[in-house]
């Protein structure tokens, strides 16, 4: 038994060095973007840019139309003011006493047989 004890002691005394095995795990390479995805991304970007340009074009045409409408409305308001002023001037110039003064200045006389009454507006 002593022999076995020595063998056991010597076996225990000599530690076995176990080197850890290095496991190399190869990870599969990932493709970042596939060719089909690239085509889809490019098509999406093209569609979005076309829509953006279309929207900007429509907005500019709407703004231009709005500006034209505003200028036309300002012209209409100016013309309507001129019309009101002209109506006041017509009413002022068509007064009876002013017409009589002009007629007498031109040497015309009033003949009541030739006068016809016209209903006023």
From TrEMBL:
Taxon lineage: Bacteria, Bacillati, Bacillota, Bacilli, Bacillales
Residues that span the membrane, as ranges: 39-57
Recorded name of the encoding gene: ftsL
Chief place of localization: membrane
Family indicated by similarity: Belongs to the FtsL family.
Keyword set, alphabetical order: Cell cycle, Cell division, Cell membrane, Membrane, Transmembrane, Transmembrane helix
One of the protein's GO biological processes: FtsZ-dependent cytokinesis
InterPro entries, per the entry: Cell_div_FtsL, FtsL/DivIC
Cellular compartment(s): Cell membrane
Membrane topology: Single-pass type II membrane protein
Pfam families: DivIC
Species assigned in the record: Ureibacillus acetophenoni
Protein name: Cell division protein FtsL
GO CC terms in record: cell division site; plasma membrane
Function as written in the Swiss-Prot or TrEMBL entry: Essential cell division protein.
């Amino acid at each position: 038994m002593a022999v076995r004890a020595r063998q056991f002691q010597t076996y225990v005394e000599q530690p076995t060095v176990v080197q850890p095995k290095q496991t190399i795990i190869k990870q599969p390479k990932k493709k970042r973007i596939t060719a089909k995805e690239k085509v889809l991304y490019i098509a999406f970007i093209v569609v979005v840019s076309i829509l953006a340009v279309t929207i900007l074009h429509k907005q500019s045409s709407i703004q231009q139309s709005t500006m034209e409408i505003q200028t036309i409305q300002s012209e209409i308001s100016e013309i309507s003011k001129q019309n009101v002023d002209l109506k006041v001037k017509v009413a002022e110039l068509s007064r009876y006493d002013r017409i009589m003064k002009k007629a007498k200045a031109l040497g015309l006389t009033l003949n009541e047989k030739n006068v016809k009454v016209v209903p006023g507006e």
